[in-house]
Design brief:
It is built from 9 helices and 9 strands. The longest helix is centred in the middle third of the chain and has 30 residues. Among the domains are: about 90 residues, 434 Repressor (Amino-terminal Domain), CATH 1.10.260.40; about 90 residues, no CATH class. α2 packs across α4. By secondary structure, the chain is an alpha+beta fold.
Amino acid sequence: MNDENTVQNVTVGEILRNARTMGRRKREISTVAKQLCISEEFLEALENGDYKKIPEIVYVLGFARNYAMELGLDPDEIVNKVKAELGIEPENDTPVTIEDLAERDKIAGYRAKMQEILRVSIDYIRNHWLWFAIGAGVLVLAMLVVIIFGGSGNPETDAPVAEPAPVVQAPAVEEPVYNIPVRERFGKENMAKARVIIQSIEDSYVGVEDSKGKVVFGRSLVAGDVFYVPDGKGYKAKFGNAGGVDIWVDGELAPKVGANKTSKKDVSLNPESLMKKAK
């Protein structure tokens, strides 16, 4: 009975810290922070249960979910324990992924840049208003000259304006016969040329990098979600649940890249490499 109470009283921070420092893959927190692209300060806040250091609740839950997946823990269990520690009802919140958080940070960054550009522009105009007034006067004068002297063309002899040629859309890639119905599609801009398609058949984190190491996709997929890999060489993937994804190459199902509930990284997404084991 005491053992059961002890397990129930273990905090999320203790679970995460023990998984990182006492598991098979012992890692420094700085190493995990680089792999997840999450601030080391935020991961320390999760392990210390100091959630106030993370700006918003959605960030706390999103970071906790992805940290748990990276450490091989059950992300839903960790998120529910965080909610319990914060006094949040499970139905009042939706899981947030790294991709969602990155998109919010990107929008906030754009907004801050636009505000700074607007402020600098207003200061510049205020300090150089005379030159802008002269420029505006010259522009108005030029427009008047065009209106007065440029309207003498003969509409009967003017050459007709050619209509733009119709845009021919490339046919979309032929979909394979998936093992489970498609829930949501990601990377649809790659559909026309994608030779490799990843479908999650169980909840799994999927990250894809190009040949230069730039992340082109990173998201926790639920069963049925599909991602179309861009056409080209050198793409690599990281899977939080390697056995929970199907990889299709030119409409054929490739061999599994790992066992269920295991993580895999640096998995080559070149079609020939993926199908090599099948030959």
